[in-house]
Amino acid sequence: MNMKFMQIAMNHLPEGKKFLDDKGIELNMDDLQPMLELLLNVMSEAYELGLEEGKSESK
After folding, report:
1. What is the mean pLDDT of residues 33-52?
2. What single string gives the DSSP state of each residue in the chain?
3. Which of 4, 14, 20, 59 supports an S-S bond with 25, CB 3.0-4.6 Å?
């Protein structure tokens, strides 16, 4: 699942980088790595929450 999340994040990375660049915040890929890890953690937690809710609704 983390690989799918990474693919999603990488698809949206140019948009996020442009947003930061427009705000005058310059980051290289080494700077972005911790933010990508944070995003993956958020996506994983959201997935688990949705999975738990789906299980409880199906009961």
Report:
1. 91
2. -HHHHHHHHHHHHHHHHHHHHHTT----HHHHHHHHHHHHHHHHHHHHHHHHHHHHHT-
3. 20
